[in-house]
Amino acid sequence: MPTDREPYQPPFWYRGRHLQTLWGPLFRHRRLPPVRRERLETPDGDFLDLDWLEGAAPDGPLILILHGLEGSSRSHYARGLLIEAGRLGWRSAVLHFRSCSGEVNRLARLYHSGETSDLAWVVDHLRERPGLGPIGLVGISLGGNVVLKWLGERGDAAPSEVAAAVAISTPFDLAACARVLDRGFNRAVYTTSFLRTMKTKIRLKRALYDGDIDLAAVLRSRTFREYDRLFTAPLHGFADEQDYWTRASSGPFLERIRRPTLLINSTNDPFMPAESLPRSAVERSRWLDAEFVAEGGHVGFLDGALGLSSWAERRALAFLGRHLLR
After folding, report:
1. Can you give the pLDDT at residue 308?
2. pTM summary value
3. What's domain 17-173+253-324's superfamily in CATH?
C-alpha cells in the first residue's frame, strides 16, 4: 500500500510547467495493460465503452477512472492508474466519454466539462451488479471536473457505494482556464492539439449537424472561446460560451460534496491559474482534502529517475484505500 502522505519530490531535471505537462504524454507507459472492453448501450440509443483491467480479483473495491479532454484508456495517466490498481489487486476500469474510445458515438451530442448524466447512469448501472464492492472515483482534468460536479449535484444523495473520490489537475473555473489556454504558447501547443482531434470527430459526424450549427465557422475556430461559442454551447443547450463555462465549472459545487474527496493540483499548471484554486472551499468543508503543490504541471507529478512513475497516482490510490478498505 502506498504511503498516504508521501511528499512530492520531482527529479532534479523535471522542472518547469511545460516539461512537466508534456513529458508524460510523450514518454510514459508505451503499452496499455491487458484490458477487456465492455460496451454499454445507453437509454438514448448511444453507447459508452468501459475498459476493464484484466486479471483483477472479481470482488473488492472498484476504481472507476474518468479521463481528461480527448483522453482515453491509452492516456499515460489512465495506463498508470490501471497498472497501480492492478498491483494492489483492485478492480479498475476507464469510463470513456462519448466519442473517446476510438469510435465516434452515434448521436450528435458529444461530451463536455460539465456533462454528468453519463457518469450518473454508469454508476447506477454498476450498482445493479451482484457483488459490487465500494467504488472509488478518480477524475483527471476534465474528468475531475465531471466527478466533482456530479458529487456536488448529488450531495447527501450520492450513491452509498461511492465511498470516496480523487480529482487530479481539475479545471475548477473553466472561464479562467479558457483565458490562459487561448493565448501565446498555450494556444499554439495545447489548444491547437485539442481542437485538431475535436474537429476530426465533427467532420466524421458532419451530417448530424448540417443546418443546426455553422460547421464552417466551427472548423475555422482557433480558440476555445470560439469553439465553445460556436459548437459546445449550441449543441448542449447553453446560451453562449460564458454560460457554458459558468454552469459547467465544478468550483461552485465543491461545498455540496458529501464524500471524502482529495483534490490534487499544482500551482504551476499551465491550464489552470493558481489564483483559481478553491482554497477557501477546502477550508470550509470537512469532506475535502487538498494537495496543492508547487510543481507538477498539468497531469504531470512524475517521479523516479526517468520520470516514469507518478506521485499523484500513488497518492490518489492511497487516499482511496483509506476509505474503500474500511
Report:
1. 87
2. 0.96
3. Alpha/Beta hydrolase fold, catalytic domain (3.40.50.1820)
